[in-house]
């Protein structure tokens, strides 16, 4: 197939036209593509402040600002890989289980063509159905989760499918290799003293105070050693960032990652076998001056650039 081309921002200025992720063409068919950006506009599994269902549109809008050559990796994304905006997955705002099944089906179809995915949520619950699809094609995967919360609760109000449970459900279902799961940036007040116990026992849980104390370079080196040659999935909850960088999220926690530290983690994936990624929990109604959508759009650029440089090498 022909190499998909973005809208030329030297011909059509960045504020013009219909917004797609990073101005890539909308191609709702993954055949022949290396990577697709997929919107998952669903927040019915969020427990506190909602609004993440509106994030794919807001992030598409702000991703028009992104230029497509990465200065550190020295790669032009769409020249190294065939990448497109796949559009949005079908969702029902009234049915979590059914929506999760639709997410799994759609992502399975995409991965069945050997295409990788960058999902744009949506609340963090969507990572579980995405991992069901990813594991089907890659086996149990390593996971790097940037987050202020572990999201390993067993249930909330008796419900097993919420945005606080995906990394418990994925473990139970054998979708991930627990020895190769790293949770980065965990912090904040807890309901009970043992809220972090399950994560500490099953995963490499790196609390935010450890990152502040040791520095991100050391932590990224640990991450690369832990993941090794395994297929790895990157799940980026925007609340892993500090609320001063990303206030537009349902459950913000102070003392978090800077935008630069999040970039350091993502750039640490060069040479690793990245098979999928997501950016979740951006809530435009909770945002201030759209800063969180702008940050998310630029982090998507960072993730796409990793896919490109790994292919280009
Ligand atoms: Mn989360």
Write a concise keyword list for the protein shown above.
single chain; 313 residues; alpha/beta; Arginase, Chain A; two-stranded antiparallel ribbon; 34% helix; hydrolase; metal-binding
How does the SSE layout of this entry go?
Elements (H helix, E strand, L loop, with lengths): L34 E6 L14 H9 L5 E2 L4 E2 H4 L2 E6 L7 H17 L3 E6 L5 H12 L2 E6 L19 H7 L3 E11 L10 H6 L1 E4 H7 L1 H12 L3 E7 L21 H9 L5 E8 L10 H22 L1
Parallel strand pairs: 1-4, 1-5, 5-10, 6-7, 6-9, 7-8, 9-10
Antiparallel strand pairs: 2-3
Helix pairs in contact: 1-10, 3-4, 4-5, 9-10
Bound molecules: manganese (II) ion.
Descriptive report:
This protein has 313 residues and is of the alpha/beta class. The protein has a single domain, classed as Ureohydrolase domain (Arginase, Chain A, 3-Layer(aba) Sandwich), CATH 3.40.800.10. It is built from ten helices and ten strands. The chain has helices spanning 55-63, 77-80, 96-112, 127-138, 166-172, 197-202, 208-214, 216-227, 259-267, 291-312; strands at residues 35-40, 69-70, 75-76, 83-88, 116-121, 141-146, 176-186, 204-207, 231-237, 273-280. An eight-stranded parallel beta sheet has the order 4-1-5-10-9-6-7-8, with helices on both faces. It has a two-stranded antiparallel sheet with strand order 2-3. Helix 9 links the parallel strand 9 and strand 10 (273-280). Helix 1 crosses helix 10, helix 3 packs parallel to helix 4 (127-138) and helix 4 (127-138) packs parallel to helix 5 (166-172). The longest helix has 22 residues, at 291-312. The two termini are 21 Å apart. The mean pLDDT is 97. Residues 124, 147, 149, 151, 237, 281 line the site of manganese (II) ion (MN).
